[in-house]
Amino acid sequence: MTMAGSRVHRHGTIYKRVEGLIKSEALQWKDRPLWFDIWKKFPPQVEPKEDRPVPNVHVRKILYPEDMVRAKMQEVYEVTGTVKNLRTKWKGKSKNQLFVEEYVRLQKPGLSVAEVFRQVEQEFRARGQQFIRKPKNVLHNAEETEPQNEESKKS
Amino acid sequence: MSFTTLRLYRHLNLLQFATSESTYNRRALFHQSHCCQQNKNVPAQGRDGLVGSETSTVPKAFSRTQMITRSMERFIKHLQGEELKRQRDIAEYELGKRHLANMMGLDEGQEMTQEDVKKCIEYLFPSGLFNKQARPMMEHPLVLRPRVQIAEHDEEGRPKHYLHYTMKPTFYELLHKAAVKYERLKGFDGGQEGNLSVNTTASEEIEFEMLEWIPYAEFKDLFKPEKISEADYKRFLTLFSRLREHPLGHMECDFVKTFLRVRQAADSGEKKKLLPIKDEDGRLFVIERGFKKTAKAYVSLKNNGSGQWNINGKDLTYFEDVLYRQVVMWPLQLCNVIDRYDVSVRVTGSGISGQAQAIRLGVSRCLSAFMSQELVEKMRIAGLLTRDPRRRERKKPGQEKARKPFTWLRR
Amino acid sequence: MSGSHSRNLPAFRLLSTTRKYLSNILNLSQSNESGNVNDRLQQQDPLDHQDYFQVRDLVSLETMFESQCHYGHHQDCRNEYMTPYLFGTRCNIDIIDLEKTVPLFQDALNVLAHVVYRGGIVLFVSRQKMTMHRVEHMAKHVGEFAHCRQWNSGVFTNTEQIVGFPTRLPDLCVFLHSQTSAVMPHPGLVDCAKLLIPTIGIVDSNCDPRLVSYPIPANDDSFLSIIYYLKVFENTVKLAKQKRQDDLLAEK
């Protein structure tokens, strides 16, 4: 498309190019474009030029403490409930989220994961909601291991 | 630098309009124009009246906003001058006509046409010049110098049409309108459908059924100065057929109909095309026959259906094998109308495969009465409208079957 | 970030509070002595005012979050020039830092309002089919221009040939979607840069923000977010036009 076209846009910014024209009197001050004063007063935060160094920024991973619980939960229980619909502004909490919150509330230092899971399950059953456990052969003994030492599971 | 400057001029070239002025003049125009920084303290209205009282009191804020630039004024003045000149020319032309009439001894009251003027000039000023354009002539000034079209812009040089920069404003506005209407139809859910549906009369429906889109050649001319490509036409077709085929499409019937016209009959030289008949429910139907080997199928096809089948009193399960069901449905599938027509068939003779193919031919023939010419052509190319002429070959004497010889035994 | 251009957030807060304070005074004075402060404010050059059109209030972080403006693309699609605007990645999806977006958005709106106020032409550009007709409708509604169709490369560079007579080009282009597909940048951006037209653009995590004069890092695919941007832009243009009309009347 730009096979034999101009490449002026690669050098500097549009503001600098107009400034240069004015400085060299190729363009009279009164003929400056409409946006020139606005740009001068409110310049962009970063100069919009094409030749600029690649920013060296590390993008971190967003992780929360309860992510481990959520992962474990997905291993033990069948995945139910809906995925969030991006076309609606639904502000409610999903079933899984409620489960995790309950887990965090009931968690105590002495308890194993399996015990807390059982407690949470009972709590939900009392409210009339159910979490279906996956069949035993799929479990890989997931319940017995602590969420902290993931590696020990593989051995 | 020169290149950039040139580009810049193009961009800043805010208020140049098509005039007959030379490029030199345009440059001058350009230098006087723009952004009104220089004459910012002079309000546009009453400029002539307020010359003395200069406007130091006028705040900066709006002095910039209100300006009609000098180039614009110049342009308007230029146009006014042109118009004056043109009026003078027209008056002169009318006077000239009367002089001509006088010279030729015509009636005073009689109106002279351009033809008459031409004849008079030819008589009064005979010319042997070979080039016809070089001969004396007298034309109406508006024919010689038509008015400049500037309706698209307002005083500040802003285009009038909000889609001006797409270069095809009228065409794209049409698409925009259709898209908005389609979105509106999509907004109604199934629950409301019953309340909203309008009872169209049967004749209207038939009319709607028998219409087709206007062809590209005609469509192109509707948007004359804009160049409509075939791709654009296709885009129009997809959008409008979607609008037409929507379950609530009849709500926008009038809008869509402006681009529909009655389908032209097929070439008269060929076999006369079957036309659908109306039954007691007001539905259109066609009866046709299909053959294959000794199988005969009597097929009747009804529109506004839901894809129901009736083959000798059974539905599609008449054929136990899925393959034959596919064979039978192929024509409908090809035209993408499986769920729009009801088919009922009486079929006799031959085996299962032969019956299926006989039905297929019958259905295809019926469909060709409903479908557009393009689709019929597509069916023909697919071989759906051709009767398979092969028959069972007779058994020959001295042979086991038609071709197979007896087993040869060395004795 | 270059020192001269950087602005810190507290300064903005300060300004917005002063503006609110000023507007309070204005309201009071109108009831008491007619129009003294009003005159003083009007004689000020709009450019000297940090927020002449009060458009900075139109953007709020909460609404942006609710409108799903923080969702980026998969991290593999990320444009490396977008990394400064990212908050992090969650499940391999980039999340845009809305705290950085909001001031950028406000700046962009301010510029847009100033251009409209001066009678500039604004062109809204988008190639997203889902919201195309909405963009066109909005542009028509506020009396500006829209281009949501296939970009003819001569639209700006060869207008005279195509239209038949010279046309005034837009003074600002607003790109609601700075790409034509998942990978192709919008050719209009380059044309704008060549013809010295400033641009405002919503840039997602997979877009190249380098040629956009006033980039707004935010989600450009979600239906809700686009509706939100359209609403904000519409209000901005309306405010600026209203201001323009008021000032014209005051002049008379």
Automatic annotation (TrEMBL), chain A:
Keywords: Mitochondrion, Ribonucleoprotein, Ribosomal protein
GO MF annotation terms: structural constituent of ribosome
GO cellular-component term (any): ribosome
Similarity comment: Belongs to the mitochondrion-specific ribosomal protein mS23 family.
Species of provenance: Dreissena polymorpha
Classification via InterPro entries: mS23_dom, mS23_dom_met, Ribosomal_mS23_met
Residue ranges of domain Small ribosomal subunit protein mS23 conserved in the record: 4-128
Name used for this protein in its record: Small ribosomal subunit protein mS23
Chief place where the protein resides: mitochondrion
UniProt cross-references to CDD domains, sorted A to Z: At1g26750
Lineage top rank: taxon: Eukaryota
Subcellular location field: Mitochondrion
Region: Disordered, residue numbers: 135-155
An individual GO BP term: translation
UniProtKB/TrEMBL annotation, chain B:
GO biological process: translation
Stretches the record annotates as Disordered: 387-411
Residue ranges, compositional bias (Basic and acidic residues): 387-403
GO MF: RNA binding; structural constituent of ribosome
GO cellular component: mitochondrial small ribosomal subunit
Transmembrane stretches, start-end: none
Keyword field: Ribonucleoprotein, Ribosomal protein
Stated family: Belongs to the universal ribosomal protein uS9 family.
Protein name: Mitochondrial ribosomal protein S9
Taxonomic source organism: Dreissena polymorpha (Zebra mussel)
Automatic annotation (TrEMBL), chain C:
Protein name: Mitochondrial ribosomal protein S2
Cited InterPro entries: Ribosomal_uS2, Ribosomal_uS2_bac/mit/plastid, Ribosomal_uS2_flav_dom_sf
Gene3D superfamilies, per the entry: Glucose-6-phosphate isomerase like protein, domain 1
Organism: Dreissena polymorpha
Pfam families noted in UniProt: Ribosomal_S2
Molecular-function GO term, any one: structural constituent of ribosome
Protein family per UniProt: Belongs to the universal ribosomal protein uS2 family.
Record's GO cellular component terms: mitochondrial small ribosomal subunit
GO terms, biological process: translation
